[in-house]
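Q: Here's a chain of 347 amino acids. Please give me its 3D structure as C-alpha cells.
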Amino acid sequence: MSEIVDGPTDPASVIATMTEFHSGLRIGHMLSAVAELGVADHLAGGPLTVDELAARTDTHADSLYRVLRALASKGVFTEVSPRTFGLTPLADTLRTDSERSMRDVFRLQGKPFMRDAYGAIEHTIRTGEPAFEHVNGTTLFEYLAARPDMTALFSRAMGNGARQVQRAAVAAYDFGGIQRLVDVGGAHGHLIAMILDRYPEMRAVLFDQPHVVSGAGKFLESTGHASRIEAVGGSYFESVPAGGDAYVLSHVLHQLNDDEALVVLGNIRNAMAPGAKLLIIDPILPEGDTPHPGKFMDITMLALTRGRDRTEQELRDLLGKVGLRLVETVGLTAPSSIAVVKEASPA
C-alpha cells in the first residue's frame, strides 16, 4: 500500500474532488466560447430563450442550450424558465461593458495560440522550455508584435486583469504624495488610469513597447486623464524614463526570468532619483501548501514565458543583487501584493 502523507481519505470525497478538477478543463473552454460569442452581452437587457440567443449569436440552439445548462449548474448564467437564460453575478463578468468585465481574459485564453500552449505543458515539465515557444515557434511577445489584432486583445485582457485582480492592491496602498508615477510595461494604461482616478494631482508616464503604447490613445482619451499621461515607447531592457518619484512594475517582473529581471530592475534603479521608490505589483507566493491564486498564475508564467512568480524571500534576494531593498509588502495574502522597494542603504 502506498504511503499517503496528507489530504482527504474518504474515497467518495477523493473521487468527487478529482472529477471536479477534470471538469475544469471543459469549463474553461466553455467560458472562452461563450465569451467569444458575446452571450452575456445579449442578456444585458434581460433573459432570452435559447432560440433567441442562437439567432443573435449565429449558433446551434440545442448545442448552445447544453453549454449554458452546464455553466448554469456552476452559477454562470441561470435557467430562469425552461430553455430561457439570464445573467448571474458570475455571468455578468463576461459582459464587455461590465465594471467587473473579464470577457477579454476568457477570449484570450480561448485563442488557439494560448489554448494549445497550455495543452502542451507536459513539454515544459519534461524540458523546462516554455510550451508556448514549442507550440508557436516564437516567444509570446514576438508572436504578439507580429499580430496587431492579438496585441490589442492581449492588452485589453491585461486591462481586465488590472481592473479586477489589482484593484484590491491599489486600494490598499496610499499613493498620496507621488507627483510623477512611471508605469513600466503598462500596456494601454488601465492601471495608471485606476490610480489617477484616486489622485487628481498626480501625473503619469505610460512606458511600454512602441507598438503597444501606439494603441493606447483611444483608451486614455476615454478615461479623461489623457492630458495627465505621457505615453513613451521603448524597451525596459535598455532603459526606462527618468524623473519619476515613483515607478510601478505591475505583473511584469513575473514574466521575466531572474537574469532578465535583474536587467529591468537595474535600469529602474538607474533612473530612480534619490528618495524615489519602486512599487512591484505581483503575486507573492506563500511557502508550502498554503493556497494562493499566484501559484496558478505561476503556471501561466511557466507555460507561456520564461518568468516565474516568487516568494517574498526570492524577491528580496533578487532586489539585493541590484542594490535595492524590500521595505514592506502590502496585501501579502491578496492575489496581487504591492512590494514597496527603495534603494539599499549604503554599507
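Q: Can you summarize the key feature?
A: Residues 11-96 form a domain with the Arc Repressor Mutant, subunit A fold (CATH 1.10.10.10).
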